[in-house]
Structure to design on (106 residues):
């Protein structure tokens, strides 16, 4: 499997979970259940952190094999998760893009 496909599997599975948690948060906020809404907000924040760590670890582990075209998948990552990704992984992504600058993406 390609790195893009591996990242797609990670993002798809995690986005499904993130969507369910976000839906539950919205539901409890709408019902006025502030205690459960707070619990869901904490759960979503924790999940976003874990999701970001999963992406960070993948990028760091495979940095020498990744191409800029593999990073198109990050367009599908929720903003909250993207903001939790580490600076280290962001620097690696930038370096990979710099290294491949001028190459046409596949």
């Amino acid at each position: 499997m390609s790195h893009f496909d591996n990242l797609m599997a990670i993002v798809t599975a995690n986005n499904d979970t993130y969507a369910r948690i976000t839906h539950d948060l919205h539901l409890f906020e709408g019902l006025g259940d502030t205690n459960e809404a707070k619990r869901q907000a904490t759960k979503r924040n924790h999940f976003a952190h874990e999701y970001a760590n999963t992406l960070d670890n993948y990028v760091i582990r495979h940095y020498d094999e990744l191409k800029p075209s593999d990073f198109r998948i990050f367009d599908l990552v929720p903003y909250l998760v993207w903001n939790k990704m580490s600076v280290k992984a962001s620097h690696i992504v930038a370096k990979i893009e710099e290294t491949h600058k001028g190459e046409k993406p596949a």
Observations:
- The chain has a mean pLDDT of 89.
- Residues 3-31 form the longest helix (29 residues).
